[in-house]
Amino acid sequence: MPRTQTLLPIVPFPTPGESLDGYLERLATVNGYDRADLARLLGASPTNPLGAIPIDISRTMRDRVIALTGLSAAQITAMTVRGLGQGSPYKLATVDAGNPRTLQSARARGWFPPKGSPICPKCLTETGMWQLLWRIPFCTICPIHETYLISKCPSCRRMPRTVRASVFKGWMDDPAACGNPTGSKTPCSQDLRHTQAPVATDKSAVVGRKVWSALSGRPMMSVNTDVRPNVYIRDLKEISIVILSLASATPSSSISQSLLEGEESKSLEHRRWTSAPPRDLTGD
């Protein structure tokens, strides 16, 4: 396939909330490109890696997407975690999408988007779009369908989109296919639209909607006080860490034992904790 750097013949418009890797897969598919073609179009290389998508995108790769699609830099950034803006719980100022080490450093702080994506099966059925906020560990519930997000493919038993060499999944022409590596040449072909998602309780659904609102940058209220959305998420994280630590503690242990070594002297906001968000959101 040609390495075109001109506007592609067909350019789908991004859907609000869509993740950049899913959008690029749609872009490639409607223009007849496969995964290897897409990597070449984006100029993927050791110095211009794909691994940071959808957390961030390098300026070089962003400029290629602009040339291929005619989208603005703001539209492209909006499909990444960096684009969350004031709702972001992450400090990405030191992250360089062209330098994998800076991304690894950000992941080491904990509660960072995993290398994969939970899903809402009903959303996939209705829109075929992979949502950016599905990746954020604070999101456990779909605010539209009020069901828990599914974090495990029923076939390969791993989180969907847990790819290795590329951020683009196998069967990228089928948005609802799992696409995880299987150890053979054929990726997992499980149709995720048919996965059953447990219904959330009324109280959980209310909290889930608030989390989505905060991550979307909307002003929040907490204890009758206006709070910035990123502060709301930060406080929610700290409360969750304490609850998880208490739930997993032995009778003779304390919260301080849930801290990583050398973190005791740091402020609560800057500490790194052993307690991580549950990998399986449904409790299976």
Overview of the structural elements:
With 284 residues, the chain is mainly alpha-helical. The protein is 30% helix and 4% strand. The chain has helices at 20-30, 35-41, 59-69, 73-77, 100-108, 121-127, 202-215, 229-248, and strands spanning 141-142, 147-148, 220-222, 225-227. A two-stranded antiparallel sheet has the order 1-2. A two-stranded antiparallel ribbon has the order 3-4. Helix 7 (202-215) packs across helix 8. The longest helix has 20 residues, at 229-248. The radius of gyration is 19 Å and the shape is globular. The N and C termini lie far apart (44 Å). The model has no long low-confidence stretch (mean pLDDT 84).
Proportion of helical residues? 25-40%
Instruction: Indicate the structural class.
Output: mainly alpha
Ranges where pLDDT stays below 50 over 5 or more residues in a row are none
> Would you tell me the overall average pLDDT?
84
* Beta strand count: 4
Radius of gyration over C-alpha positions, nearest whole angstrom: 19 Å
**In DSSP terms, counting alpha (H) and pi (I) runs of 4 or more, how many helices?**
8
